[in-house]
Amino acid sequence: MAWKVVEDKDGSSKIIISEPGGSTAEVLLHGGQVVSWKNDRHEELLFMNTKSMIKHPKTLLRGGILICFPQFGDFGPLEFHGFARNKLWVLDPDPSPLPPPRTNSSIDILLKSTDEDFKIWPHSFELRLRITLGPGKLVLIPRVRNVENKVFSFTFGIRNFLSVSDVSEIRVEGLETLDFLDILKKKERYTEQADAITFDGEVDRVYLSTPSKIAIIDHEKKRTLVLRKEGLPDSVVWNPWDKKVKVIPDLLDKEYKSILCVDSTAIESPITLKPLEEWKGHEELSGVSSSYCSGQLDPRQVLYG
Ligand SMILES: O=P(O)(O)OC[C@H]1O[C@@H](O)[C@H](O)[C@@H](O)[C@@H]1O
């Protein structure tokens, strides 16, 4: 198997996944959080805050990939982004069959509701996450099963902290002409007018009914990240910029430049599950090394080709 469990000095468990092409990923059972994804050239593709690594090894790792369940953001009465990101997950001893088949570089992790969770959100669930590392790509398949005898609904998000050279140089393509809720303006609804999303200030938006493919083009890194998704119709785009970053604990003032969150979410229409029903989402991130600067890569080819 191309993964191993490593015990950190503080007692937390980390799973290191590798694949024959040379890329690696690291997953913490605390929070079910992907904390690193490196390509075959050992370049980190996810942002992770340096402060938490150096100063407070046990506190919030702001970065990587987070699972927001049973609520995304403040779209509901629960704690911000839900409680799953603060819970201890386990390796799933008996993952139910799921196409595509597991590879040697797949892990399945599981979070089951506890009595403590029940006091906060009175529903019984099983939240599964398959993480598969492939050559140049990382695939996440979340599943939620209703294991009680009444219907429940939830919102969901895969928050991707992407590592970018400088957010003000990034173009996000695939969201143009779509409607979005602007979190910074009391969630008012607007229509995107720009032909690509670029950044010159704080952005916090929920783009609605987005396409299955979004490209994040980083000229300086000569890299395009392509996000493909299914079952997660909305896309959140977030960057705190220079003022908001100052009030976020664990982030250095300058770190906002290296962060771009483009998340796969289900927010506008919550997911509803009948007893014993299961919902499944799918996200694939792939890094395309590009010579876009010299015009050899047409971003439209990445998106539509
Ligand atoms: O700091 P957190 O809880 O990880 O969230 C980060 C940000 O996530 C965004 O989605 C929110 O709209 C912001 O308000 C928030 O600051």
TrEMBL record:
Keywords: Isomerase. The keyword S-adenosyl-L-methionine does not apply. It is an enzyme of class 5 (isomerase). One of its GO terms (cellular component) is cytoplasm. InterPro entries: Aldose_1/G6P_1-epimerase, G6P_1-epimerase, Gal_mutarotase_sf_dom, GH-type_carb-bd. Transmembrane segments: none annotated. This is glucose-6-phosphate 1-epimerase.
